[in-house]
Amino acid sequence: MALRNIVTEEDPILHKKSRPIEEITPRIVKLLNDMAETMYYDNRGIGIAAVQVGVLRRAFVVDIGDEHGRINFINPEITSREGEQRCSEGCLSVPGKSGEVMRPEKIHVKATDIDGNPFEMDAEGLLADCICHEYDHLDGILFTDRAIPGTVEDVNAQK
Ligand code: NI
């Protein structure tokens, strides 16, 4: 595994749509492993999408520190959304900022895992929030694009 550079908000690639992954090659496996390592490293994120390391492919990794541990999503589809929650979010690509975003409280998602097996799962609360945030990255959307007006603030300035 290797650390990759994280693309930050000035880079227009973050507003591009990612393409589906047709085949899970060793290169894709390495990509996901590198993304996870980059997320866990001192950045301490809970999710990272391929575009955030400069690769326009529909994949992300999340780990919110619950019993699921690391979950790899390849070509994910959110197939249902239920309820609403107001979430406080940050992003590895928008360092030093936080903001509040309305997200569904519960979702159902279908994807392929890193071994090429299809899976589906229900998620709620923080996990649903995190998956929705990463899913947005695949369509070129940042949390700052969706934030409730006036809620985006400089985290560093508060401390
Ligand atoms: Ni993000």
Feature tags:
23% helix, binds nickel (II) ion, 159 residues, 8 strands, 3-stranded antiparallel sheet, 5-stranded antiparallel sheet, alpha+beta, 4 helices, Peptide Deformylase, single chain
Report on the structure:
With 159 residues, the protein is α+β, with helices and mostly antiparallel strands. 23% of the residues lie in helices and 30% in strands. The protein is built from four helices and eight strands, in the order H-E-E-E-E-E-E-E-H-H-E-H. The radius of gyration is 15 Å and the shape is globular. The mean pLDDT is 95. Nickel (II) ion is lined by residues 91-93, 133, 137.
Number of helices: 4
Query: What is the CATH fold-level name?
Result: Peptide Deformylase
CATH class: Alpha Beta
CATH level-two architecture = Alpha-Beta Complex
Beta fraction of the residues?
Answer: 25-35%
Concise account of the structure shown:
With 159 residues, the chain is of the alpha+beta class.
Layout: helices, strands, pairs:
Blueprint: H1 26-40, E1 47-49, E2 59-62, E3 71-82, E4 85-89, E5 97-103, E6 106-112, E7 118-124, H2 125-138, H3 143-146, E8 153-154, H4 155-158
Antiparallel strand pairs: 1-2, 2-3, 3-6, 4-5, 5-8, 6-7
Bound molecules: nickel (II) ion.
Nickel (II) ion is lined by residues 91-93, 133, 137.
